[in-house]
Amino acid sequence: MALGQRARTMQETRDRLIQAARAAFAEKGFAASSMDELTAAAGLTRGALYHNFGDKKGLLRAVIEQLDAEMLAKARKARNSAHTPWLGFLAEGVAYIELALEPEIQRIMLLDGPAVLGDPSQWPGQNACLQTTTDSIAALIEAKTLRPVDAEAAARLINGAALNAALWVAASADPRAVLPKAVEAFRCLASGLLAPGAGG
């Protein structure tokens, strides 16, 4: 088999396993999804799962990476549709929190993910997210929209607030009732960074 064809076949195998796992984890949860069911749904063997992901936990990581990238794209879309950089910055954080209402994200990213993989702030995707937020804050500071605070420190606090708000929404008995409270508090916290007289 040619090298290019082999790479395509390997990627197709990974994609099929991720899609099967994503559907199963969203519907049944991580613990109740068996590897045999996952591989059967993908039309593959357990060996393919082990070869590509090591184990079911490795497959969960891959599913979360895919969901994380989709969440980031949705949050950036909200940012890019805002009228000013400051409103875009707020919209991005709010959009992230609002994604906690999506059943797939709620179950996989915000409930099962932390339970199985530990603290989400330590997941690999969070480093890229932190850098993006740091860059946004640095630009807003340079534009005199935000107070001259340490950009990384502010980014860590803002990202932590958005993440914990999303976790709270997802874990609550009534996510739709909790969401507006979380969003309002997030907006108030973020607005504390505004420079005196700056409205964004």
Automatic annotation (TrEMBL):
Keyword terms, alphabetized: DNA-binding
Gene3D superfamilies, per database record: Tetracycline Repressor, domain 2
A Pfam match: TetR_C_41
HTH tetR-type domain residues: 11-71
Portion annotated as DNA-binding: 34-53
InterPro entries xref list: Homeodomain-like_sf, HTH-type_TetR-like_transc_reg, HTH_TetR, Rv0078-like_C
Domain of life: Bacteria
Protein name: TetR/AcrR family transcriptional regulator
